[in-house]
């Protein structure tokens, strides 16, 4: 099954793909208009043959919802109105920290971290999902 991992952010949306229990960075979408964001996202879903979506759910360290949590839930609801694919939610606590560490350990130059961080966070979200499935 081909999965699309999404790390939703205020400025950028990190995407990762997983197939055969292997997750890899895919793309970062820059947020401009809501319509363009969903058009770009649906184009990826169609062109890549995605069968399910895994969306990171940002909870605070106590597992409580925050303003960002509500924004992600609104994004999920908007996406669900545009696709029939199942959307699975995964707690994304510490994924950005983990993603930053992985980039550093892989020797990725600091100047490339910004462009890759959201994708790597999406990889972490997918790996959490795959580990829990």
Could you characterize the architecture of this molecule?
- 47% of the residues lie in helices and 26% in strands.
- The protein has 4 helices and 5 strands; from the N terminus they run βββαβαβαα.
- It has helices spanning 34-48, 67-80, 95-105, 110-132; strands spanning 3-8, 12-19, 22-30, 52-57, 87-91.
- Helix 3 (95-105) crosses helix 4 (110-132).
- It has a single domain (3-107, 116-132), classed as YqgF/RNase H-like domain (Nucleotidyltransferase, domain 5), CATH 3.30.420.
- Strands 3-2-1-4-5 form a 5-stranded mixed beta sheet, with helices on both faces.
- The model has no long low-confidence stretch (mean pLDDT 88).
- The longest helix has 23 residues, at 110-132.
- The protein is α/β, with parallel strands linked by helices and 133 residues long.
- Helix 2 (67-80) links the parallel strand 4 and strand 5.
CATH homology superfamily name: YqgF/RNase H-like domain
Low-confidence stretches: none
H-E order = EEEHEHEHH
CATH topology: Nucleotidyltransferase, domain 5
Strand residues, percent = 25-35%
Helix content: 40-55%
Tally of separate domains: 1
CATH C-level class: Alpha Beta
Kindly provide the radius of gyration, computed on alpha-carbon positions and rounded to a whole number of angstroms: 14 Å
């Amino acid at each position: 099954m081909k999965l699309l991992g999404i790390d939703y952010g205020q400025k950028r949306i990190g995407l990762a793909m997983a197939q055969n229990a292997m997750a890899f960075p895919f793309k970062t979408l820059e947020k401009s208009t809501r319509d363009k964001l969903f058009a770009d996202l649906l184009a990826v879903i169609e062109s890549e043959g995605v069968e399910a979506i895994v969306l990171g759910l940002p909870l605070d360290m106590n597992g409580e919802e925050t303003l960002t949590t509500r924004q992600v839930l609104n994004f999920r609801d908007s996406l669900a109105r545009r696709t029939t694919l199942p959307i699975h939610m995964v707690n994304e606590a510490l994924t950005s920290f983990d993603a930053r560490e992985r980039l550093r350990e892989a020797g990725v130059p600091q100047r490339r971290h910004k462009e890759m961080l959201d994708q790597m966070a999406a990889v972490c979200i997918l790996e959490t999902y795959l580990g829990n499935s």
